[in-house]
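Worked problem 6 (solution included).
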Amino acid sequence: MNLSEMITLVRRDLNDETTPYQWSDDELTRHINHAVKELSERVPLPAKATLPTVSGSREVDISSLTDRIMVEAVEYPVDESPAEYQRFSIWGDTLTIISGDEPDGSNCHVYYGILHTLDANGSTIPSKYDDLVVTGACGYAAISQAALSINKVNIGGTMTPTEYRAWGNERLIIFNDGLRRLGRKHRVRTQQLFTD
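Solution. The predicted structure is:
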């Protein structure tokens, strides 16, 4: 799925398939990106980075981890069998390794989640979530249109803003319910990355 295909699906659900379009491609792209960002918060794209530590310091600079949503685990020292995961805390762009030996300047592995991408070249979003993104984008588009329709003359009558808002809110309820089921924040986890 690429952005153009996603726009087509959103237009189909909005019943906006004949020109002149009610929503421009730029407007729909903004609403799609909003939905992708919300999905990424719940189901981030997994990533791994190898970062240097500083000898005598437990702090690791993670500012190079662009589009970072969360950090799942820190492995230090690296390439041990079994892997040694450390407890850590994060403040801004500084990760502090709490457990284990004080770093000696060698590398650590940081396992983290980043924003998904959806552009002209393709998508990092698993295809099973495409319909969820469409639903969210439609909800955001309808609510935006409701705000634009207030105090404007239109062929839909005075109820048009209210109907857009109600339909958009219904879509967003479905979208948020889907996100809640996927959410990493509310999931029971049975794994253990380190021992006390």
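Discussion: Residues 45-114 form a domain with the Elongation Factor Tu (Ef-tu); domain 3 fold (CATH 2.40.30).
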